[in-house]
Every structure is written in C-alpha cells, then in structure tokens.
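Ligand-bound model needed. magnesium ion.
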Amino acid sequence: MKRMRGVELMAFAAVLAVAVAIAFNGSGYAVQVLTSTAIFIVLACGWNIISGLTGYVSFGQVAFFGLGAYLAAGLIVNLHVPWYAAAALAGLGAAVVAAPLGAIMLRLQGIFFALGMFGLARIGQIAATSMGATGGAMGESVPTTGNALETTLTILGLACGAVLLTHLLMGSRLGLQLMAVRDDEAAAKGAGVHADAVKVAAFCISGCLAGLAGALYVWNIAYVDPTSAFNGTIELQTILMVLVGGIGSTWGPVIGAILISLLGQVLWARFPMQEQIILGAITILVVIVAPGGLVSIVNRFGWLQRRPVWSPPPAPGVPPGTRPPLGAAFGKGRNARLRGEHLRKQFGGVVAVGDVNLTTEEGSILAIIGPNGAGKSTLFDLLSGFARPTEGKVYFGDRELTGIKPHIVARSGIARTFQTSRVFPSLTVWETVLLASSSLNRSRRVAAAETARILSQVGLLDQWASLPERLSPGQQRLLEIARALALHPRVLLLDEAMAGMTPQEIGRVHAVLAEVVRQGCSIVAIEHVLPAIAPLASRVQVLDFGKTIAEGPPALVFRDPDVVEAYLGVGEQAAVDAGI
Ligand code: ADP
Ligand code: MG
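Prediction:
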C-alpha cells in the first residue's frame, strides 16, 4: 500500500516537473495549452466536489466561473486591485454568493437541480451583457501583471492547490458526510449528518473553485466578455473531463483534464471540423466501458484507490477517560424516556397511524408487532423526526421533539435503523460507523476508538476495509445496527433489524442488545420473526390498522385472542408454530 502511494506521488511529481519545464522553456503554444489545462483542472475539481462527491450533477458551474471572471475584472479595471487579491476575492465572492443560492438550489433534486443551474448560468450571461458592466456585450480588456511566466506558474500552483484541496476533503469528516449524503441521504440523516448544511458547504467550495478558475481565465487572456465567461462549451468540456477521468475521485478530474485537453489539441489540429464529435464519442465510449472513468480501471489493479477516511482503525479498547456516556449529547442521568402521545399520521385518505401512544422504559426492550401495513414503520418515522405527525406529540424526557429534524434527533440520543437495508454502497464498513460516531463532534481519536470498539462488538472489525457489497445480508444489517450504536443512543429503534439474519447472526445481535440494555439504553424493536425478539422483550405492543390493539408482557399479549386473530390470522396453532 505504502509503496503504491510512493509510486503515485512520484508520477504526480513527474507530471508536475514536465509542466514546470514547459512553463520555463516551452513554446508560446505549449504554454497556452498548459495554462488552459491547469485552469480546467481547477474547474474540474470544483465540479467534481458538487457533482461527484455530493451527487448533485450541475449543468451550470460556469455561472460561478463567469461570476469570478467578472468579479476579478471589475476589481482590477475599476478599483485597480492587484491581481492576486482580485483572484482571491473572486473565489471568495463566488463562495459567498453560492451560500444562499445553494440553500435554494439544493432543494431541487436530480435533473431539476441540473437544469436550475443551467438557468443560473444563462441569467449570469444576460446580466453581464445587459448591465453594461465591464464592457457589456462587447467585453473589455483587463490589464494583467505582464509577466507570462509568473501567470503560468501561479495558475499551475493553484491547480495543484485544487487537487490538494480535493485530496484533503476526501479524507475529512466533511468529505465522508458528503459521500454518505450522495449514497443515501435519509440514512446519512439517521446517522446524525446535517445533510442540508454539508451540501451547501460543498456547493460553496465548488463555487469558490469555479470562481477562482474564472478569474484565472481572465488573467490568462487579459479579456472578459459575457459569451466566453459564461460559455456552455467550457461547462460541457469540464463535465467530459471529470467523467472520462473518474467522477468522485481525487485524481479523475486531473487525469481527465490533461487527457481531454491534449486530445482536443491533437484533434483540433488534425480534424478541426470533427473535433467535438470525436471527443463526444470517446467520452460516451469511456463512460459505457467504465462508468467510473479511467480511474476506476486503474483502481482494479490497486492504483489510485481512495484511502478510507481516518483509517486504519486503532486496536479496539477505548483509551481510559475518553469514553463518552450514553446519549452524550443529551446528558446522562436525565430522564431519557421516549414518549409518543396520541400520534396520528395520515397520507391523503390513508390513516397509517391513528392515535397511538408509546412509552419506552430505560433498560428494557419493547417489541412492536403487527401485520404488514399496520403502521409500525410510520410510527418510527414519527418518533425519529423523519415524518411530522398529523396530530400528537413526541417527547424525549422533558423535551418536546415533534417536528425536530432527524439528524438532531439522532444526535440527541435516539438512533434508528430502517426496514429496508440502507447501507452506503461506496463507504467502507469502517467509514459507515465512523460517520455516525464522528457526527457527535467527538475528536478524531475518540471517534476512531469508538468505531473500532463497536465494530469489534458486532464482529465486523476484520471486515473494516470492505464495502457493504462484500458483506452477507445479515452482516449488512449488523453494520446498520453498529452505525446506530455509534450514536450512543439512549433509545434504539430497530425496524425489522434481524430480518434475513442467520441464527448465529441473531445470536450476535441478542448479545449486543443485551449489553446496551444493561447500560441503560431502551430499545424499541419492530420484528416480523417473533422468536427473533420475543425472548428479549419485556413488553409487547401490537398494532393493527394504525391502532394499538394490545400491550403488556409477552406471555399475556401473545395469548390474547385478538392478537392471534389480527397478527397471525389463523388461530392458536399458528402461534405455537411461530414459537410464541
Ligand atoms: P408497517 O411498517 O406496519 O408494515 P407502514 O408504516 O410501512 O406499515 O405503512 C402503514 C400504511 O401507511 C400502509 O398502508 C402504507 O401503504 C401507508 N404508507 C406508508 N408510508 C406512506 C407514504 N409515504 N405515503 C402514502 N402512504 C404511506
Ligand atoms: Mg414496516
């Protein structure tokens, strides 16, 4: 692994050395190709952060590119600000503008976000043309430093900076949170991630890089005009570069920018009329053969692989004095009963939950059973902030939780799992649990130690570097339980967590649950396979058609004729068969 990193670093140094040599000794043409490639690297890194890491594909990053170009040009022409300051302010200005825009635009999903961004770029272009700023439609020349070598080296340095930024981001907690949001936003929220905030942060970083690239573009050509500053072709080329290189990776944008730039030059010289067609065809081919781009091909041989965030795991066993109490964010010792009072949830004409009361007891397990469609999962959504009750209230201790966002509920000590498996396909076992552990704002050392401890508790520490696809279905469910436990819950909501597990895995879960219950955590478990939970539960609550039809100790409830009728439908023999 280390040797591979060394080789990768040497390859990067070699490419950089060639670039510097061209800057010093290359022809005017070679220097121009170098400079524009470096600017594309900055732009591609920015696009990769919002579209690759966060999963919000944008067709309008050029809006920030144009904004940066105009900010820099305006500052230089009108206020005679020095170039370096103007470029920095252009990047900063784009980031500042991106914050409110992101808060609005990121509410859009998929193609609507992409088109919204496209519209934004058009608005930028129209504004620059009609406002008559810096030359209006005709554009205006912008004085440069006059030193071509200095310009080239600065742009090259900033391109390296953009790559370094991507590298650092992908190894950071923010990067981990972004990848989790990209993979499964609901699951990320359930792990305590403030999805809206991290998306806006990514949008700002991405906008900042695009704004900086715009300023560098003006610096390079000493001219600004609306058509080239908000140029759709630049957008398209950037997207092609990232797709060909490898979306969502550190090196993809760099490799793509260099290859597409060089190829574009060759094609333009040889086949000027067909250049765009050939480039387009090559991109389609690469994306079909390797959807993850060229990086995904070399990944297969162990090269340029992403290193798991904050890895490797320390030996399990938490350093003394660092282990936070259960429900750390909520405060140990306080009343930690979760109560749902008169909860009702209606979807149009369907009453999924109608007037349900529920109370947890510290240090005990409450089993919720009921036929399919009884409203069990909806009840969990109401308790964990994923859905707002139509009527009724949720309390956690003395605090009302009704309408509180799910990531806050998760951080305050109520963790949940989901009925359908919601693992993050591109996060390793280690990262999945670390995500939840680090969302309690613990230090890196404590979060890592906790993650190692929980993984060893559920028996997945050996698999720490695996992606979920390498785990059995039962292990994936265990991983989801581990992710919930990493939030140090005082209340754990398990929605059919043991479905699809082998008897050994169920045994492992029982041991883990018994341990957390001993520590005072209360558990609410929806289960379909009754033997999976019946031996552990001290109380059972039965739902049918959104109403509680029975509750009490298991022995009593399971003998209730209404329960046998509603839940099993066919009488007492079925109850015996089901093992209750
Ligand atoms: P259970 O978990 O007990 O099987 P659910 O809580 O998933 O039941 O569903 C209860 C009822 O609410 C079902 O009739 C289901 O179709 C309906 N329902 C659940 N979620 C939604 C939704 N988002 N929109 C409309 N109906 C829903
Ligand atoms: Mg359900």
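Confidence is low (pLDDT under 50) at residues 320-332, 570-574.
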